[in-house]
Each structure stands twice: as C-alpha cells, then as structure tokens.
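Batch job 17 of 40 flagged for manual review because the log was empty.
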Amino acid sequence: MMEIKEDLLNRLISDIQEFSQTDLPRSETNTKKKIIEPLLDVLGWDTRSNDVTLNYPIRIGTSTNYVDYALSLEGKLVLLIEAKPYDDDLTSRDSSQIISYGLVERIRWTALTNGRVLKIFDIDRGNTEHECLVVEVDLTKRSSELEYLKLISRQSISTREIEEASTRLLSTRRAITNLKQKHEEAEEDLVNVLLKYTGVQAESRVREISSQLVTQIVQLLEKKVEVKPPLELEGETRPIYRKELISKPSGDVVICSSRVEAVEFLKKYNAWGFINISERHSPKYFSLYVGTPNSSVLYFGEIDSITQPLDFMYDLQKISQEEMSTFEKGKQVVYLKPGTLVELKDPIPLKDPRKAPRHLRYTTLSKLIKAEYLEDL
C-alpha cells in the first residue's frame, strides 16, 4: 500500500490540532481548506488537477445535490467525499447521504469527514452505514489507526489494494460479531476439541481455559480493526461556577436526568448511557439533572462523541454487568471529552417538584449559564 511520508502526516495532525484551538471560524469552508484538501494532497490526490472535481452534481430524482469532492482516475469516477464543518458531529443521516450518492453514481468507495473523524464506506457491502462502514479514523491523534487513511490514497485505489483491505476488515468485524453472539457455542466447540486430547478428567480446567481463549480471540481480532472506543475511567470532577462556561463556544446542551446513585457511572466512565439522541439535535454539551435530594442540574461536560444506536452490549467495554442493567438495543452512549466533566457550584434548581424531568431536554449554553431555575431552560 502507498507509503505516506510520516513527516507530512505528522505536520497535518499538528495542523488539525492547531486548527481546533484557533479563533478561525470552524466552518465547512475552512475545514476543507485547512484540513481535507491538505489531507488529499498527502494521499496523492492533486486537488489542483482535473482528477479532483469540487461540488460534483448528483442527480437524485428531479433534484440535483452536490458532493464536495469527486475523485477520478483516468477519467473514471472512483471516490466521493462529503465534508462537514469541524464542529459538527457526523450523524447516521450524513452517512446515509454519502452512501446514497455512491449508489446513484454506481461507484464502490465513498467517504465522510468533518476534519476530526473520517469514515470510509464500501457500497458493494449494502446500503446502510452498518453494512458499508469499512473503518472510522480519528484524525486528531497520532495512532496506528492513521494507517487506514492509506485505503483512500490514489495508489491504493489505482492498484485495487483497497478492495483486499476492505474485505479483510469487514470479514474480521463479522467474525468479531459472530463470536460475541455465539460465545457459548464457540466455547463448547473448543471444549469438545480439546477434550479429545486431554481426557474428561481435565474437563473443568479445559472449560475455564476455553472461555478465556474465546474472549482473547475476540480481543485480538478487535486490535486488527477500528472498533468503538472503550469507556475511559475518569477521576473526580472539578467544581466551577456556571459563569466560567461563558468562554466556551455557543452550542446546544442535552439535559439528561438521573438518580443520585447513578452519578457514579458518569464519574467512573466519563460517559452517559443509555439514551436516544434525536437526529434533529447535535448537542455540543452534556448536563445532568440529579433527582432528590439535589433536584438540580448539577453536572456539565463537553461531548466528544455519541455512538450510533447499539445492537449489543458487547459493543461497549469495561462496564460491569450490573451497570449494563439499563442497556436496551437501539440506545446510545454519550462520551465526554477527557477533563471536561465539572460539578456546578451554582447548580440549577427545580422550582416545581411536579415538573421534574423524566426525559431528555435540549437547551443552549447561554440559557444554561443564565438560568435561575430548571424551568427557565
């Protein structure tokens, strides 16, 4: 696969990190100019050449949509890339959009990025994000997963190396899912094989080892593909006054509700689950209303990412079984940026106990800073 010059890639990652802290508007236009187009150049695509078409028209029914980048080889369209603003999270709706463009144009490869995350899709695998997602790459960190950027390099697509890599990654992911779903069955098959050589006298020990082996095989396979990040353990929260949040960029806040005893989950995992975030909302911030005896919005944090609706509890790691008691298929987990979870010194109290929140609410950061009571949100 194409060799990407490490110094160019490191410089690009530094530029992305610097862009995230700049005062420049992190609009789609700036995201494309400062991150996406330099990335394409690093991957061997000359954005000044005729091989890269900007705002390529896609005809769907009676309307015309435009995809940000259409990449061609020898005049043949081979890759579509849709761009989003840096501060926008990538949603399942965004994924469906670029997948539908690939289906209409009958090309195999598409990608979606906001300059922080890049998703690569193989349209031959189906027509949904779950079916088509080959890999998801975090562009903000220097890590081994940056190797997956080479999948959409000019050389990789030209030599069709991407096809082999896609098949390998998707097959491995399928194997992981099958092993997780049929853990007990795989364990029993392994026990039966080993007992042929060890004898039934060692059955209890063989069963113990077989269970460990199946788990370890899943873990080894997961290291070969991009998987959902594990919940990171977090320390104690830092107390602040709400007025200290005024320096943060404006944005929407999702308000979740909780019993006092569930706050330990938030502090322990720096994340919150299991909930449903409406596709109509893309909150930047998280806050938690804690019931009696507090009866107030007590915690605040910056959202790092929100998972897609989860199919299996196995998709999450490092959570004990008792803390999975509220897991439901189709629910999501909100991950907070490390170090951003704070406890409010001036929490927002509930004025009328009859109006205690039982479902998600959405508000803005400015309202959260100024509110006297929960009802003001």
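Reviewer: the log was empty due to a logging misconfiguration, but the result itself is present. Residues 6-166 form a domain with the tt1808, chain A fold (CATH 3.90.1570.30). Unflagging and moving on to job 18.
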